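Entry 14. Ran structure prediction on the chain below.
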Amino acid sequence: MTYVVTEACIKCKYTDCVEVCPVDCFYEGENMLVINPDECIDCGVCEPECPAEAILPDTEDGMEKWASFNRDYASQWPNLTRKLDAPPDADEWKGVADKLDKHFSPNPGKGV
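Output, structure tokens:
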């Protein structure tokens, strides 16, 4: 088992999860984060820290596509090792459904 970030993170990009990760397995895109499932140690400390409830175990139904998505983008985006300020409109995007097709950016973030 590993944990994955889902589309609930898109345009929210809270980074509370990054601060508690003991192995620095988060990677930053322009408007979301992903977890490298090959680096995740399945400790689960990130899941309850996510205000958008975007982090789920890959054993839940439908998470196979998100495990692949996370793996793909973790190999392209820079590693993020510390908490950043959330985007100013993050709370407005929290809970919005179906963000992947219309709002996802494949561009990398800055990483730190």
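The chain has a mean pLDDT of 96. Will compare against last week's run tomorrow.
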